[in-house]
Amino acid sequence: MKIFIPMAGKGTRLRPFTLTCPKPLLQIIDKPIVEHLIDQISSRLATQIDEIIYILGDEAYFNSDVVTSLTLIAKKYNAKSKVYRQLHQLGTGHAIMCAEESLDGPSIVAYADTMIQGQILIEPDVDGIIWVKKVKNPSSYGVVRLDEKQNIIDLIEKPQDYISDLAVVGIYYFKDISIIRDKLKIHLNERLSPGKEYLLNHAIEKMIENNKVFKTQEIETWMDCGTPRLLIESAKKIMNSQISSATNNSYAKTGNVKITPPVFIGKNVKIKDSEIGPFVSIGDNTDISNSNIESTLIFKSVKVSNADIRNSILGENSLYDGSNRQIFLGDYSQINDNEAN
Question: Please, are residues 70 and 64 in contact by the beta-carbon 8 Å criterion?
């Protein structure tokens, strides 16, 4: 089994946290977003992952350090890795075709800003599976239309009239992805109207027209990491499901410290006279004092003092000593309201 992970976007909705780090490599608790995705898929697959194929953007942003990190992630799953580049953002179908040389055999396509919880079962008798989640407002999503046999017969993007409440979450299985390759090759030779893109859905729809069988599989939890607030909400869901104890590592404690789980604490963390939790993730080498912190992601090497914050994100190597209740502070940034006092 191969996993294709298109991740060429620059995560602009998550700035400033994606100014120097691609969104899929942002750390949530103990691992990057993309590793959570791979872990969720691989832990539920009955077959071995042979290769993970990453489709990245230009080297100025997705540099050699990014490639090294992604290669190491693949090695954790005893899988080979391969990198392709999508230098022009021309749609999901175009992204997949940037990896044309690798498009053969049983494969999963998973978009890197998606995390899920639930079953990943491969049905041997179908040509494809699309993972879905029931939503309350289907007009905001791409949805599937099913026939009486529960086969997918259509994919509709943001329908104005009710078609279905099964939204596509961005994970697909293909029994033989070379069929997708052949359909997309024709599609990419078409001249599109301005503003249109080459879409993966086009190839899936052509397969369905040729009587290929696609089924849905509903997942329990769908986590979107597209904005800072969504990133925090996704982290909460992961902490609820994965962390049974208050911390993952010991930490240096000084004075009166209260930890209300779920809380993840990295290595070499110092906490003094503070209340932490629930739903707080603290990165390695972080120093917190005289603070009350809840529902917050704190990345590595951060200094926090005299803070009372909720629903916040503090980037790597940042310093915060302030009075805001909510703060989104980028990497290597500082707010020190008490400096003059």
Answer: no
